[in-house]
Structure formats: C-alpha cells, structure tokens
Amino acid sequence: MEETGKKVIFSGIQPSGNLTIGNYLGALKNWVKLQDEYDCYYCVVDLHAITARQEPKDLRRRTLEILAIYLAAGLDPEKNTMFIQSHVSAHTEAAWLLNCNTYVGELSRMTQYKTKSSKFGNDTSISAGLLNYPVLMASDILLYQTDLVPVGLDQKQHLELTRNIAERFNNAYSPTFKIPEPYIPKEGSKIMDLQEPLKKMSKSSENPNSFILLMDPPEVIKKKISRAVTDSIGIVKYSDEQPGVKNLMNILNTLTGESFDCIEKKYAGKGYAEFKEDVATAIINEFEPIQNKVEMILADKTNLEKIYKAGAEKANYIANKTLRKMQKKIGFIPVSK
Ligand code: TYM
Prior knowledge:
By secondary structure, this protein is mainly α. It has helices spanning 21-34, 46-49, 56-72, 90-99, 104-108, 111-118, 128-143, 156-173, 218-227, 243-256, 260-266, 273-299, 301-330, and strands spanning 8-13, 39-44, 81-84, 148-150, 181-183.
C-alpha cells in the first residue's frame, strides 16, 4: 500500500439525516479544497448515526447518498480514500481500547451529550452509545495517525477530548498516536437555524423551515430563505443584535466571497427582500450542479460500490496497522500467522 508522505486528514459526516447547508459550508466545501495537498480519509460515519434510532432503509439510502454527495461536491476517488465506517471493524475495536482510557466524567461533560440527553428528561433510557460517541470519534481520527481534522465549530470540543485521550494513551504506553489538530474554517463554521438563529442549524431538527438541505429543489430554497427569521430593524448589517441577518450574511459571504462591508453597502436602504433573493440565488447556484451530479452517481451503483470497496481496503490496511500497535502495547498476545 502506497505511503504518500503527505500530512493526513480525516473527517466524516453522519447519515442520521439529509445533509444541510451547515454540513456543506462547515465541512464538505473545505474538504474539496484540501484534497490535493493532503492524504485525505473521508468517511460516512454510519456507526455514529445509530446513537439515535434509524429506520434501516433510510440509513441505507442516506449512507449511499452521502457518498454520492461527496463525489458530486468534487471529491476525487483517485485522490481521496472514501469509505463507510462500518466496513472497517478496527474503528469499533479501537474504540473499546480507548474507552478503557476515557473517564465517564469527561464524557458526561460534553456539550453535545448534555443537549441530546436532556431531551430524555428524567427518563433513564439514554443509550450508552450517546455517551461513548466521542470515543468512537477519537478512534476514527487516531487510527489514521491524522494531522488535521476539518470540521465545523460544534465538533471542537470532541477534538479536544480526542487529543486528551491520545495524550493519555501515549503517556501510559509510549508514543502511539499523532496528536491531531482541528481545522475549523473562519467562515461557515457555524451556520445557524433559519427559524431560531441563536441555535445551530441541524439536520435532525423537526422543523424543515429551519434548515436548507443540499438536495432541496430551487423553489424550496427560495421559500425557506424568504421565510427565514430576521428582525424589524430592516437594515442589512453584520451585528450580533441581528442574528438572523448575520447568519444570512455569513452564508452569502461563504458562498460568494463578498465581504460583509460590501454586502452592507449593496443593500443599504433596500430592506430585506432583495437581499434574501440574492442569498437564495447564491445557494441555488452552488447546489444545482451538485444535485444534478448526485442523481447520476446514485444511478450507477456498480461504480459507487467500486469506490467504497477500494476505500475500505485502503482504510482497513492503515487502521489495522495502528490497531495492532495499540494491542501490542496494551499486552495482548498477537495472533501468529
Ligand atoms: P455531523 O454529521 O453532525 O456534521 C458533519 C460536519 O458538519 C459540520 N456541521 C456544521 N458546520 C457549520 N454549521 C452547522 N450548522 C453545522 N452542522 C454540522 C460538523 O461540524 C461536521 O464537521 N461527530 C461528527 C462526525 C464524525 C467525525 C469523526 C468528524 C464522526 N467521526 C471524525 C470528524 C472526524 C458529527 O456528528 O458530524
């Protein structure tokens, strides 16, 4: 298996819902920019998705759709290792070993765990998977000796925990893992909910007007943006007092590169209608070519299978090398060949 000498990138998206513009701007768009310079592993993290109950047929459909979106957004299967997490069993094996080097206290302090588990109220039926989720994420990252992890801002805390777990293991057993760095874009790292702009946009939200999906048709995008909550101030200004407008400006800036200053000047004295129309147009211009390609890619199941099989082969080889190292250091008896 070829070793490139390039720095390593690992990232993934859960097939727990349809991809939003938040996933695209916070993660996927940046992955495409990094593929020439780095040795990249881009995964569809299906094992993570089952921390919430998934309808099997939806999980299957979304897993392949996300892979197709990776390709349609411009990730080249010749340059990147693209695979499905459950095809590389080292992820779950390593997660157990790391679990034994992780404290329940640090897991229960994770913001995402607190938010998700609070929805259960006094009910004690929170899955252990929800608590252990960041350990599986640490395993994903550490198995590939990753240098950089391109993610949105919401994953920063999980990255910090990954670094702590890696350092703890390295100190206990001698250096085993590279300590990864987060790669969080300056723009687009936190796209907000269109209806409640103080909340992060999420693919698992119950209100479809709160998010734009990568696969939303143009007329739906126009409708959702026109309904996006703004304020009664009526001035297009980049300000914390106007979180709805600020969010739309962030989206426009990330898609078109227009500065906030420029956007403010362009819509001065014009209210919100024209501004919103232009935001919708910018999204449509970005998404339409991707959407057309997704349909074509999904229609060719043989090619898709070829890509995820080749990805799993390379990923298995690299991941197992690290897993064997972990097992040996812990004191397990190696299987003789
Ligand atoms: P997930 O599936 O929730 O989100 C995928 C990526 O999209 C980013 N993101 C956002 N960025 C900006 N604004 C938003 N509103 C927004 N919502 C989501 C996320 O930060 C993420 O980069 N735990 C991860 C998946 C994962 C992973 C990994 C990532 C599993 N193992 C290893 C990196 C490395 C997650 O749930 O992402």
